[in-house]
What we know:
By secondary structure, the chain is an all-beta fold. It has strands spanning 2-4, 10-20, 27-36, 39-42, 61-63, 65-69, 72-73, 78-83, 88-91, 104-107, 111-116, 125-133.
Amino acid sequence: MTIVSGTTRRVRLVEVSINGRGTSSAAQQVEFGRSTGGTTPGGALTPSKYDHQDQPVAVSVVNTTWGAAQPTLDTHTETAGWNALGGAYRWTPPVKGGTGAAGIEVRNGDQISLRATTGVTFQPLSASMVFEED
């Protein structure tokens, strides 16, 4: 899953939730963070508003498939781990010096991706990414 920020827009990732829906106990992992590249995006999702009083739905794009090449994650990413048999993982940004959350942020067409970690045999899961756009 990749969020591509809109032109002249900022996207800040504020929560990632992953829940195991597998049939046996097994370690699972994904990585998420800033990314670059990717060829032939598709499977676009329309983001939903978090609150009914919020502004209109985001102009940023959320893609779930990539044709020729997946985006490449930056060197510094977050790693999410959980158990396939109903385990859960939730990430929220750390607070930086009492001045608010220090979430993963991109602007002007840059992107944030959630990608499978290599070497893991995946079982079904549910994943969501909550982001702010301004």
